[in-house]
User: Fold this.
Amino acid sequence: MPYISSFWLYFDVLWPYVLAVLSALVLITFMLLSAIFFVWLERKVSARIQDRLGPTRVGGKYGWLQTLADGLKLLVKEDIIPTNADPMLFRIGPYIALAGAFLAFIALPFGNGVVARNLNIAIFFMLAVMSTEIFGIILGGYASGSKWALFGGMREAAQIVSYEVPRAISVIVPVIVAGSMNLTEIGKQQTGPFWNWIVFHDPFTFCAFWVFFTCATASCKRAPFDLAEAESELVAGFHTEYSGFRWLIFFMAEYGSMFAVSGIASILFLGGWHLGLLPPGWDMERLFGTVFGNFINVVVFILKGWFLVFVMMWVRWTLPRLRIDQVMITCLRYLLPMSCFLLVGVSVWQLVAAELTWLSLVNYLLAFGSLFLFGFMVFKAAATTAVSPTQLMPGAWPIAGSAGPHVTHKA
Assistant:
């Protein structure tokens, strides 16, 4: 009996630490597997939008083998540290960037109570820890001993720090509506049909979603704001001198941040883990039970996050890159004043809506208007006939059943 009592005593002491390690392993595994999926998805999206034939032709079934081959290549590729680099800072830069992206997942709820750490200030904790990614970027550029890497790191630092301001202000808009900074509580408030989502609460929250998503795209170094890569300079910005596994870590951090900000957008604006098709007051847990209902919640939340990541990729392969002055002007001259206006507007709306109850009808107009536009977009995408490059230029690529292009060789 003394041995059993001692065992339970040690178990009670160690269990919180064991649970923390298990939670961290689950989150880092999900983050890295999602990054692999996003690499495959990015290649397929770029192929469909820009008629890139490679990703639609190679890589086995649906192109998965190409993604795995790229990952294996980076894992076994030689790790080179330039002569002029600072070895210690050069090594730790990518890991600091990855840590900033990973820490955000600790406070991100995937379902009702499905969160590693339920914080009362979860939203600002996530924004704060994701901001630390900039330290890894600056260290990577500075420690490389290359002026091109340093230029890329400074450009990216200016961009990320600037866009954090309107991003944080736009986050306050749904926080004012919900009356809480706890992401789990904000998610619970959006139970029921989709017109209960905060994005449709009023015109200010609707516009705040687009401001936040634009700023989030810029903070994740995504086109048209991906100035750190600087392809016009034939270099890759702050990670010019990196190769192999450490180069891979930088991109794992980028894709992890993309899902993290998409998760924030889903919780704050798009109903969180709620599907939006159930009657008022109903949720998946009440319909299917706690365990299976929460499993459905997690699946719905992940699919919403993946969809927003897909939209980021859609934007990247559609819009051209901006110059650094255009990027900064977009933030400081347009997005920052817009976010401040939305903050004041939603505050006034909350006061006026308490007196004018008919203003609650606005959320129905926004919800069904958005549903109509989304349905029309899907219809147009499905009804539009796709034309491949082989049909536009039949002489450029061999066509099944033909001998291919005819080329005459002169002696």
Observations:
- The chain has one domain: 80-377.
- Residues 80-377 form one domain.
